């Protein structure tokens, strides 16, 4: 049959039986390559946009992974230089670039409604940054400050995961729940990147690297990232990707922004019209991002 047909069939099999099992069992390199490109294009959140762009060119898996690592490196660099409350909203702007790339890859046209959602998202981000005027906090906080916040976030992720595992719930609800859990853990990993990197500013590189190997921040960062990726794949299994991707796309910046404010002491201006503009732009931007993530 046509390429699109067997790619869809391969994707369905992989999601049902597990990606690793599918890859190990496959013997057609071209089919596996096409599957991986399709998965990378649709299966990651906004912070891995670089990998999706590289995948859309038909490059090999190594190039896609390098693109993902490069994208994360730039995100980490931005977090080391500026507030989480600035970096994370801008990460959502990757959806604006993903829109024409997705249309080109799938040989479709971007509709007028989608361009409208993109314009609304761009304006909402600009209003949030201009009206909110986010300010930096501290690069790190004591463990006693991190603990209650991480307990709350962990509880949210655990409840969402439990809902995703509940077979009695509708498929879309389960996918949405896994998506929320995945996005929350991505947010935790994002915020913990800041103290891990800034710890190098006034320390010897080798000594600080050895210290980090026994630091709980690095451990939680790695575990959160791995858990987020696993739950992301689980989110794609019960229902179409469009059911969970908006939750993943929005939960990450919301969680990261909340941790940045509560733990690192970052602030946005909420007095007078500034507060109204921040809340309105946040709600409108979230709605527009969710619409675009469903594409």
Q: How many strand elements? A: 0
Rg to the nearest angstrom? 20 Å
Query: How much β-strand is present in the residues?
Result: under 5%
Low-confidence stretches: 13-47
Order of helices and strands: HHHHHHHHHHHHHH
Number of helices: 14
**Main sheet properties:** none
Distance, first to last CA? 25 Å
Mean pLDDT: 79
Shape: globular
What's the helical proportion of residues? over 70%
- Return the structural class: mainly alpha
In words, what does this structure look like?
This protein is mainly α. The protein is built from 14 helices and no strands. It has helices at 3-17, 19-25, 29-42, 49-56, 61-81, 84-92, 94-105, 112-132, 143-165, 171-198, 205-212, 216-235, 245-262, 273-293. The longest helix has 28 residues, at 171-198. It is globular, with a radius of gyration of 20 Å.
Write the layout of secondary structure elements.
Blueprint: H1 3-17, H2 19-25, H3 29-42, H4 49-56, H5 61-81, H6 84-92, H7 94-105, H8 112-132, H9 143-165, H10 171-198, H11 205-212, H12 216-235, H13 245-262, H14 273-293
């Amino acid at each position: 049959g046509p390429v699109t047909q067997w790619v869809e069939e391969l994707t369905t099999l992989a999601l049902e039986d597990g990606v690793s099992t599918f890859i190990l069992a496959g013997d057609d390199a071209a089919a596996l390559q096409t599957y991986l490109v399709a998965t990378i294009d649709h299966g990651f959140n906004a912070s891995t946009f670089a990998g999706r762009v590289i995948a859309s060119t038909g490059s090999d898996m190594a190039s896609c992974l390098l693109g993902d690592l490069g994208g994360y490196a730039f995100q980490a660099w931005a977090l080391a230089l500026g507030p989480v409350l600035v970096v994370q909203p801008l990460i959502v702007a990757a959806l604006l670039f993903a829109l024409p790339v997705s249309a080109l890859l799938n040989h479709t046209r971007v509709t007028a409604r989608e361009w409208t959602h993109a314009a609304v998202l761009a304006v909402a981000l600009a209003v949030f940054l201009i009206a909110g005027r986010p300010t930096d906090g501290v690069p790190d906080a004591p463990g006693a400050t991190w603990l209650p916040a991480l307990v709350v976030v962990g509880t949210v992720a655990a409840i969402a995961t439990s809902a995703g595992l509940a077979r009695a719930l509708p498929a879309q609800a389960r996918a949405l729940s896994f998506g929320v859990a995945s996005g929350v853990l991505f947010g935790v990993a994002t915020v913990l990147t800041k103290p891990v990197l800034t710890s190098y500013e006034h320390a010897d590189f080798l000594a600080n690297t050895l210290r980090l190997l026994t630091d709980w921040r690095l451990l939680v960062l790695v575990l959160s990232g791995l858990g987020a990726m696993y739950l992301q794949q689980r989110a794609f299994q019960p229902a179409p990707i469009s059911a969970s991707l908006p939750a993943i796309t929005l939960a990450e910046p919301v969680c990261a922004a909340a941790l940045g404010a509560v733990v690192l002491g970052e602030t946005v201006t909420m007095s007078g019209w500034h507060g109204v503009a921040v809340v309105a732009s946040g709600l409108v931007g979230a709605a527009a991002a969710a619409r675009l993530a469903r594409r």
